[in-house]
Design goal:
The chain is of the alpha+beta class. It contains three helices and nine strands, in the order ααββββββββαβ.
Length: 188
Amino acid sequence: MLRHLITTLLLTIAPGLPLPATASSGGDAEALSTIPSLDLPRYMGRWYEIARFENWFQKKCAGDASAEYSLEPSGKVQVINRCRLENGELSEAIGEARQIGEPTSPKLKVRFAPAWLSFIPAVWGDYWVIDLDADYQLVAISEPQREYLWVLSRSPQVSSEAYEALLQRLRDKGFDTDKLMSTARKAQ
């Protein structure tokens, strides 16, 4: 109920902004594991969305989705999400992420709501790095309930071998990878 009220308030104040997922209770599923540690500075830069679970806040995106992360002096991370709309225009949402716990924690909180609402816990969504190759080239992001899933890469294309291996690891973590939608790319 509270989540619905806050979401309604945020959509009224800032329509069109993608909002993060918030944690909910319940479920008998095995707890979602993350990678052991994250080198946050190494993670910074541009990531291209390869695939995702369908979600309400990216419904308007027709393709070419990407995320750019930059580390600020405060230790927080600026997040810029972009995607191409059906009409060909580029949509952009600017947010903020903060690492939770130790300096190498793979768990972050992300918000795209206005900064003045950052005191409300429900505007912060879980952003957990659950799979990442040793070269920091291919990553899977989710949250404890497994409702959301993104596969991101440093390049717009991924080898089929690397992608299939990642899908198997995601299945081993309890994800229905058949729900992944491939992200469309504009012809180069």
